Amino acid sequence: MKVTQFLIGIAAGAVVGASTVLLSTPKSGSEVRSTIKSTSTDFKEKLSDARLKLQDVKISIENLTKDSKEVFPETAESLKESIMQWKSETAPIQQQLQDEITSIQLAMEELEKILPKPKEINK
């Protein structure tokens, strides 16, 4: 649903509601005309305020879109560089850990050869 259609619906509903209330109250013709005029003026002011606020929102969205198009590529590139730097810094440590794991596995295999095997329990 478009915003303009939504606002037109709200405006129509407000006019119909206000007209119904004004015409169903027991007032003289001049009082009704005066009330309708003041209500109409208030409604026009509120509608004008709503239009200004919507225009501000539209401008804000346009600015945000523009800013995000500029900032996102920079942020993505910076993130890629950080990941590459982290990988290069941790690569030697990863290799060292892998070497230590391999030596622990070899030591365990040697210990398994040296130590006597546990006796099986007869069933």
From TrEMBL:
One Pfam family assigned to this protein is YtxH
What domain of life does the UniProt record list for this protein's source?
A: Bacteria
Q: What is this protein called?
A: Gas vesicle protein
Source species of the chain = Psychrobacillus insolitus
